[in-house]
């Protein structure tokens, strides 16, 4: 059956009917169907309810819409200055919400480690605390966002967008989060967090010598430090952050949740958890009102 894709979750399907053998288990969340005399109707199929209604557009008077009550997976952007705790919070968020964590910095460091052409170029910028050019970052992030796991489980985008052009690229692709979390941390705390940060190359876990020390000597002996985690380099990274943050915030101001990131990580997570729970509840109400 041919269908015209509108977005990852919407498709046009001119021949589908509620009596079609495909109806009980449709995969897209929205169908349009040609019909001239159909009354708005709610149907139940397994766990999912479908409501049919006429499209208001005079261009498509004979089409009907069936919208699934099943909510789309959650899409979250987390933002904040260098070492504000984005990676630390992402670990806690993914544990609870099962979202796919996509960190622009991690994707770039993987390229650097692989010594690819993009990685070699990226490292020059990362060492100066500057933004890696869009030609490298934008496609890399977009491709990861469109992978099946991100589409099915939802995503948690960390450290992207960092400039107005990166935000515009996401908007152009029709990729918009449900919520934009901004971690707000004072500058003296940021420097202390950067200098004390250590990484476990085996598990990928983030530690801090003072705030989150390794569990035992074996782990402590294998911890590494990032090449850009010095006091000198974090000041350059902070300058880059300050130059760009307002432009990014202006794109997402209607969905921004500002979180006090100065507190202990469990308290920071409690604020984020409350915000995500609220977004989830609102989405349930919205999808319920479509299906009711
Ligand atoms: P990236 O890797 O994204 O670095 P960043 O933004 O500087 O952020 P960090 O990873 O340093 O910190 P974080 O906020 O994740 O903090 P963490 O949880 O680790 O980017 C690196 C470079 O790549 C950039 O400079 C740029 O060159 C390039 N790049 C990346 N994205 C790009 C893009 N979109 N476009 C172009 N270029 C791009 O925490 C830090 C430490 O604090 C840890 O030790 C942790 O244990 C501790 N800690 C965390 N939370 C708390 C807490 N609440 N209390 C006490 N300690 C805490």
Automatic annotation (TrEMBL):
HAMAP family: Adenylate_kinase_Adk. Keywords: Kinase, Nucleotide-binding, Transferase. It catalyses: AMP + ATP = 2 ADP. This is adenylate kinase. Residues 1-23 are annotated as: Disordered. It comes from Gossypium arboreum (Tree cotton). Its EC number is 2.7.4.3. Belongs to the adenylate kinase family. Monomer. Residues 1-21 have a biased composition (Low complexity). It is an enzyme of class 2 (transferase).
């Amino acid at each position: 059956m041919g269908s015209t894709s509108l977005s990852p979750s919407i498709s046009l399907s001119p021949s589908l009917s509620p009596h079609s053998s495909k109806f009980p288990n449709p995969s897209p969340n929205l169908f349009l169907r040609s019909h001239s005399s159909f009354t708005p109707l709610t149907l139940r199929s397994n766990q999912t309810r479908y409501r049919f209604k006429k499209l208001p557009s005079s261009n498509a008077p004979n089409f009907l819409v069936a919208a699934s009550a099943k909510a789309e997976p959650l899409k979250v952007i987390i933002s904040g200055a260098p070492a504000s705790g984005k990676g630390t919070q992402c670990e806690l968020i993914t544990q609870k919400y099962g979202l796919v964590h996509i960190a622009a910095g991690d994707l770039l460091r993987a390229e650097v480690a692989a010594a690819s052409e993009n990685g070699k170029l990226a490292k020059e910028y990362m060492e100066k605390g500057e933004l890696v050019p869009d030609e490298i970052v934008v496609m890399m992030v977009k491709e990861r966002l469109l992978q099946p796991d991100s589409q099915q489980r939802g995503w948690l985008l960390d450290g992207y967008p960092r400039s107005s052009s990166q935000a515009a690229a996401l908007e152009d692709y029709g990729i918009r989060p449900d919520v934009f979390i901004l971690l707000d941390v004072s500058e003296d705390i940021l420097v202390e967090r950067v200098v004390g940060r250590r990484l476990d190359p085996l598990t990928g876990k983030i530690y801090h010598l003072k705030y989150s020390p390794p569990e035992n000597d074996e782990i402590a002996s294998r911890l590494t430090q990032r090449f850009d985690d010095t006091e000198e380099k974090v000041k350059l990274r902070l300058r880059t952050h300050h130059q760009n943050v307002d432009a990014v915030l202006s794109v997402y101001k209607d969905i921004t949740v500002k979180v006090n990131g100065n507190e202990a990580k469990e308290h920071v997570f409690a604020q984020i958890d409350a915000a995500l729970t609220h977004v989830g509840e609102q989405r349930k109400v919205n999808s319920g009102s479509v299906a009711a």
